[in-house]
Amino acid sequence: MLEFFSQSWHWSISGAMIAFVMLLLIFFGQRFGVSSSFRALCSIGGAGKKIDYFNYNWKSHSWLLTFIVGSMIGGGIASTVLASPEPVQISQSTIDDLSELGIKTPSTMEEGAGFLPTDVFNFDSLLSLKGMIVIILGGFLIGFGTRWAGGCTSGHAITGLSNLQLPSLVAVIGFFIGGLVMTHLLFPIIFSL
Amino acid sequence: MRLIYFLITGILFGIVMTKSEAISWFRIQEMFRFQSFHMYGIIGVAVVAGALIHFLIKKTRFKNITGELIDFKDKPKTYKASLFGGTFFGLGWALTGACPGPLYTLVGHGYFIVLVIIASALIGTLVYGALRKKLPH
Fold it and tell me: Domain limits of chain B?
């Protein structure tokens, strides 16, 4: 049993489990959408005094903040008790493309679990232009973009698309325009810095 | 509203995000390079299963835990915001290899550098809140 949970899952099981999480949240009276938490956290920090957008009852999102704490605990469990015996198996063509950009894909657990390229994602790299762009600008774009679009992968791509919402389809098209431009046009520039 | 339900659902979500490998920066690169079906399979199954869930809830007038009928609100028809905001998010998604759910899960894995990404996302949210009335929606 534990062995089954320790292995990485087939995509069909993963997809079904995400839909199950969505169903649980609906059953408990809420709707699946993680990026609203950014607005709630800004509001808790007192941003509502200066900016109207944050002047709302953030306690209506206390369920979401609890959910997030849970997802951190779940991450902790998944990386210890249920840790996979081998790193994420990435396709060879991606490994080759990334190696041209100077990014090494881990092939053994000693080199990493394959979740983050730790050569780029570390505190020292915050002192380099490349690190600042990837970490700080990257984070900024996530917050700015998801709140402008009114949702992220969970709110638009999963919940919105499965409820046949046209604005969500437009948002997902936007996600891919941005992702493709970044990966194919801007990565070669950023990773040569 | 019993918060314990959301804590447990969140724990399940963190495990699912990890075991699906949706938290992997490398998987997101595979997706944007069209070099693996993995992420498309996950999102595709989640959307199809989700559509079935939505359909059945509406058809059977399924009630939630407090016995109320489930009311699905439509997303606001702000297409410009969806497209432009979505594109900005896509740029950030490819850079950091994580959407908001996985960001929190990665912190639980002990990747504390991700806290800097989350802090930057909060600054991005603040800037959006300040500029909101000037941006097209």
Answer: 1-73, 76-137
